[in-house]
Task: inverse folding
């Protein structure tokens, strides 16, 4: 067995525990996409082309609220801006890669695979270490596509009374659980939430996501400064 | 814009942020301040999805009284903070929601 394949397998094994919450997320996405009016082919296309849980759910949420395409695309962009943060960390490990591998790996660079591979990169100096990220990313890809597919099929069988759309805010809530322990984050969460809720009907073009996120980030900057000056 | 065009544009913007971070961003391009602000992006953006979905009904009007989603979300937050588990957060929220609407 060559070392590339071994590292690839290690990536699969490392990322697997993080796939457990991806299963309900993918199912819910499949069910809801068909529910808000996308065809099964379009729903599958979203998972194949976008391949990003948060982006796809934001797309659905704004699409079902009647937002314009421009607002939807810029909101998806805003959601993805968190990825830029990873760049500072992961790029130093991948800077020697050929451009073609950078192009391929970019498609697989999702939160879970990034988190696990970054830990692996810090400990290993092997030239082929990027196969770890390919293994983790491919695992996420298979889980995401198959659960989307299952969601599309199950969608028709799940009664509307179950209120499965409530799973969307719950999923995002779950992604924030570590932030609920930090003071500044809690304040930012509350400010952004209130701006979005009260601005939902007032802010034009359904741009409430972007407006709330912007005000949240400004508050975070001000709060960080205030706490630093007090120290 | 057709649904397909919308999907492709959203896919492009998602891909480009990932590619930018691998191929273009260098560690020295971000000082600690910018990194610190970027770390607040999830806290700033996810509540804009969470809060309206809990406090507003399908027509966009406030629904504060008799709203099982508020109670279920509070339970999910408590379970989430104490367990630190994503799965436990989602399922405790859904379970309490179903308990309120079907049993109580």
Result:
């Amino acid at each position: 067995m060559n070392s590339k394949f071994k590292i690839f397998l290690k990536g699969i094994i490392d990322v697997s525990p993080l796939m457990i919450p991806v299963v309900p997320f993918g199912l819910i996405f499949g069910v809801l996409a068909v529910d808000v009016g996308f065809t099964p082919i379009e729903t599958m296309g979203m998972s194949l082309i976008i391949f990003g849980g948060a982006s796809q759910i934001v797309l659905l949420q704004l699409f079902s609220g009647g937002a314009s395409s421009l607002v939807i695309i810029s909101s998806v962009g805003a959601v993805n801006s968190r990825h830029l943060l990873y760049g500072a960390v992961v790029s130093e490990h991948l800077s020697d890669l050929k451009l073609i591998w950078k192009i391929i790996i970019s498609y697989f660079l999702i939160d879970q695979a990034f988190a696990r591979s970054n830990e692996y990169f810090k400990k290993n100096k092997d030239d082929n270490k990027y196969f770890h990220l390919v293994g983790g990313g491919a695992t996420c890809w298979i889980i995401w596509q198959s659960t989307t597919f299952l969601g599309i099929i199950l969608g028709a069988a799940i009664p509307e009374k179950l209120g499965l759309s409530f799973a969307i805010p719950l999923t995002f809530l779950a992604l924030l659980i570590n932030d609920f322990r930090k003071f500044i984050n809690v304040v930012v969460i509350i400010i952004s939430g209130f701006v979005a809720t009260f601005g939902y009907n007032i802010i034009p073009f359904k741009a409430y996501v972007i407006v709330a996120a912007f005000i949240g980030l400004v508050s975070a900057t001000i709060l960080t400064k205030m706490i630093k000056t007090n120290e | 814009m057709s649904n397909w065009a919308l999907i492709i544009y959203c896919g492009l913007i998602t891909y480009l942020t990932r590619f930018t971070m691998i191929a273009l961003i260098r560690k020295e391009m971000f000082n600690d301040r910018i990194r610190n602000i970027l770390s607040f992006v999830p806290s700033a953006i996810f509540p804009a999805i969470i809060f309206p979905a809990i406090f507003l009904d399908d027509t966009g009007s406030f629904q504060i009284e008799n709203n099982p989603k508020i109670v279920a979300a509070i339970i999910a937050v408590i379970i989430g903070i104490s367990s630190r588990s994503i799965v436990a957060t989602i399922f405790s929220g859904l379970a309490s929601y179903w308990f309120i609407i079907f049993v109580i």
In short: The radius of gyration of chain A is 19 Å. The mean pLDDT of chain A is 87.
